Amino acid sequence: MAKDHGNQIKDDAKYEALRKDGMSQEKAARIANSPGASTRGGKASKLEERTKKELVEQAKKIGITGRHNMKKSQLVEAIRNH
To answer: DSSP per residue over 14-53, as a string?
Structure first.
């Protein structure tokens, strides 16, 4: 049974699995709390297939600064490494 992480974590089991795989607390919490994370199952489009506008929006959601001055390839790298 997954440990209860309180109200701040919506999917405790997913959070624990991500942490066990070596993900940071912040990133694991963001994924475990995202709506529909467990139902999407990897159906999101690849970052390279998205438009620059979509990448800028994604970067904004996760708090990447300087995103408007980045090239598409730089946005992809920044999102992956965040």
So the answer is: HHHHHHHTT--HHHHHHHHHSTTHHHH-S-SPPGGGS-HH
Cβ atoms of 13 and 26 closer than 8 Å: no
Whether the CB-CB separation of 79 and 47 falls below 8 Å is answered with: yes
> Per the structure block, which two tokens stand in for 38?
């467990």
Q: HSE, CB side, 13 Å, CA atoms: give it for residue 18.
A: 19
Contact present, 6 and 28 (Cβ < 8 Å): no
| Nearest partner of 18 among 6, 55, 34, judged by Cα | 34
Widest CA span of the chain, in angstroms? 45
- Please tell me whether the overall predicted TM-score, pTM, comes out greater than 0.85 for this model: no
Model confidence pLDDT, tens digit, residues 32-72: 877 665 555 556 678 899 999 999 999 999 899 999 999 99
